Amino acid sequence: MSTSSLFLVLGATGGTGKHFVTRALHDGHRVRVLVRSLQKLGTQAKDLDVWEGSITDVDKIDTDKLVEGVDYVVSMLGDKELQRDKKINYLFMQKLVPSMRKQGVKRFLYQAGGLSKPYQGSLSWTLWLLRNTLASGFNGQHLDNEAVMEYLETQAKDLDWMVHRAGIISDGESKGTLQRSKTKFSMATHRDCADYSYRLMIDPARDAVHTSDFSCYV
Ligand SMILES: NC(=O)c1ccc[n+]([C@@H]2O[C@H](COP(=O)([O-])OP(=O)(O)OC[C@H]3O[C@@H](n4cnc5c(N)ncnc54)[C@H](OP(=O)(O)O)[C@@H]3O)[C@@H](O)[C@H]2O)c1
């Protein structure tokens, strides 16, 4: 992509989102963010079009304006505590997706977890066990991600969306290059997940459109 595009990054202050923002800026793109805390953006704030707000204040956010002029929307949102009993992402997506449609957004990437089931799909025995033991505290987050995947599959097939069912273990240095996989799943760093999602989004090929795959190291 030689020209500068406008990205809207949701979750820009998070583990994956912050790396995604850095990468997009580095490549000469413009980046709009919606954040709860300006302070968390640090000095990078000056390079961004910053909107302050919470996705839980659905009625207060003018989503049509939020996505105006935006080419690519990426969601790296998560709040484990709130998602215990509320599907905050799903509720926000129900308002955001019609705005994306109206404003002609080119692509939407939603980062879910590798332990979230794709719509009408299932988890391997190993991943099911991991979800229900060591990772059981994240169940609400997975249920929210699954509601979003169902919504995208059943009500937003007219949009070019892709879901990255990421596996994340740490915020350390890069461990390599991730690629898309229907079956193989790697525990990656935030940085590598962000890099992978970025490459997926700007890839002119359409192979990943309407998929909800894992990523694994090459
Ligand atoms: N972390 C993992 O181990 C892991 C593994 C696999 C998949 N995932 C998936 O990847 C996604 C992102 O993961 P992550 O680890 O990068 O997330 P993270 O570090 O927890 O960051 C989440 C981001 O979402 C923002 N956010 C949360 N609630 C918000 C709200 N109400 N309004 C606006 N922004 C809000 C946070 O803002 P604040 O900075 O204000 O909190 C933060 O920027 C999640 O959906 C998760 O399911 C995560």
UniProtKB/TrEMBL annotation:
Gene Ontology molecular function terms on file: biliverdin reductase [NAD(P)H] activity; riboflavin reductase (NADPH) activity
Name of a matching Pfam family: NAD_binding_10
Transmembrane segments: none
InterPro entries given in the database record: NAD(P)-bd_dom, NAD(P)-bd_dom_sf, Polyketide_Oxido-like
Domain NAD(P)-binding, first and last residues per copy: 11-192
Similarity section: Belongs to the avfA family.
PANTHER family, A to Z: FLAVIN REDUCTASE (NADPH) (PTHR43355)
Protein name listed in UniProt: NAD(P)-binding domain-containing protein
